[in-house]
Amino acid sequence: MTLDDCRALDHADPLRELRDLFTLPDGVIYLDGNSLGVMPTATPARVADVVAQEWGNGLIRSWNTASWIDMPQRLGNKLARLIGAAPDEVMCTDSTSINLYKVLFAAMSQAIDSGEPQRRTVVSERSNFPTDLYIAESLCRERGFTLKLVERVEDIPAALTPEVAVLMLTHVNYRTGVMHDMAALTEAAHAAGALTVWDLAHSAGAVPVKLNACNADFAIGCGYKYLNGGPGAPAFVWVNARHASRFEQPLSGWFGHAAPFAFTPHYQPAPGAARYLCGTQPIISLSALECGLDTVLAAEPFNADGEPMSALRIKSLALTDAFIALIEARCPGRFTLVTPREHGQRGSQVCLAMADAAEAQGNAAYAIVQALIARGVIGDFRAGDAQTPHILRFGFTPLYLSFEDVWHSVEHFVQVLEKEEWRRPEFNQKNAVT
Ligand SMILES: *Cc1c(COP(=O)(O)O)cnc(C)c1O
């Protein structure tokens, strides 16, 4: 693959003009949209208008006149189509961690209500995102459950024993880029009498998700990654309609009440997914999230059959294929590919580890990422431990990345390695956020 090949791919790319929806700093190739999405060009003016007009002039009236009160649901309806959910099943609210607390609690309730005292295990992966494991740890401790962590993807089906109440997985693993088979694992969990909780942090806006077609039970996900909602953007929560009014969630605040403005002293959960709201919503942040959602919807991410994410997925796979091919051709022997080559198992990111055993546990991965960032190629680093290598992680967002970007990012890789730039002391000092 040559630079001219990349330019030809860009020329034929039906999504290439969507880059104009974003404000990217000059000289930056941004391969970290899986951690914090790029700012949509529409966001500053929209947020300024919400502040100056809706808040400044409208004041309290804007809860009605600017429909602030409906925002979690209205935004949820925009997002629903991207994740294979139906209208009014999704709420944009709170953080991913907090939403996980709510839905995992609700999912555990089925086992408690069922009168099967032995069904007290939550299964997840040891390599799941830490906040997911920490939230599960805390809920398991509080409710007398055991958290069982499997080491390898292949071990999940065998872990679904009659003790399992909930299978809690992140659909696309944050440090490997492995995408699970949601339909098959959901079916296996149901066959074992368990419910599923899916974290879509690296899926929503990145890969096709079909929650209802997979008959999943609960899902949550992140607003500031591929949905471009801005730092700390509100997250989302989805509940299968057959469970939505069945369980209570533990953060029973007034926005999840059946009649918040009746001001009654006792909690009565709202019917449906609205009960997964808690308190007053962050309107300014929700308005920024809406601008982000609109960028994904601008890709017309549905084919004629209404299948979500088709054009975005095709380009995402082509970008990650090109990156893998160029890294292997131009930096031979230096890196091991951690992300699967099989399209069906790959998210929208590519994760590399150092091929050399000493380098894999040493500082090289971190320092190479720092040297690339200094050159304007922004990816990130995820620390490993004695069993797992350090990871160089690169997210590919088809909305604003070109094939030429991929070419130049690998050219910078070559330079960083050939000139041994990464050995400089300034690239070997750890920052607080990696
Ligand atoms: C990014 C991410 C989160 C983030 O949770 P916050 O509550 O926003 O900090 C959670 N889970 C996974 C799998 C993630 O990738």
UniProtKB/TrEMBL annotation:
GO terms for molecular function: kynureninase activity; pyridoxal phosphate binding. Its EC number is 3.7.1.3. Its cofactor is pyridoxal 5'-phosphate. InterPro entries: Aminotrans_V_dom, Kynureninase, PyrdxlP-dep_Trfase, PyrdxlP-dep_Trfase_major, PyrdxlP-dep_Trfase_small. The modification N6-(pyridoxal phosphate)lysine is found at residue 225. It comes from the Bacteria. Keywords: Hydrolase, Pyridine nucleotide biosynthesis, Pyridoxal phosphate. Residues 40-296 form the Aminotransferase class V domain. It catalyses: 3-hydroxy-L-kynurenine + H2O = 3-hydroxyanthranilate + L-alanine + H(+); L-kynurenine + H2O = anthranilate + L-alanine + H(+). Pathway: Amino-acid degradation; L-kynurenine degradation; L-alanine and anthranilate from L-kynurenine: step 1/1; Cofactor biosynthesis; NAD(+) biosynthesis; quinolinate from L-kynurenine: step 2/3. Pyridoxal 5'-phosphate binds at residues 96-97, 129-132, 170, 199, 202, 224, 254, 280. GO terms for biological process: anthranilate metabolic process; L-kynurenine catabolic process; L-tryptophan catabolic process to kynurenine; NAD+ biosynthetic process; quinolinate biosynthetic process. Gene3D superfamilies: Aspartate Aminotransferase, domain 1 (3.90.1150.10), Type I PLP-dependent aspartate aminotransferase-like (Major domain) (3.40.640.10). One of its GO terms (cellular component) is cytoplasm. Homodimer. Belongs to the kynureninase family. Catalyzes the cleavage of L-kynurenine (L-Kyn) and L-3-hydroxykynurenine (L-3OHKyn) into anthranilic acid (AA) and 3-hydroxyanthranilic acid (3-OHAA), respectively. This is Kynureninase. The lineage of its organism: Bacteria, Pseudomonadati, Pseudomonadota, Betaproteobacteria, Burkholderiales.
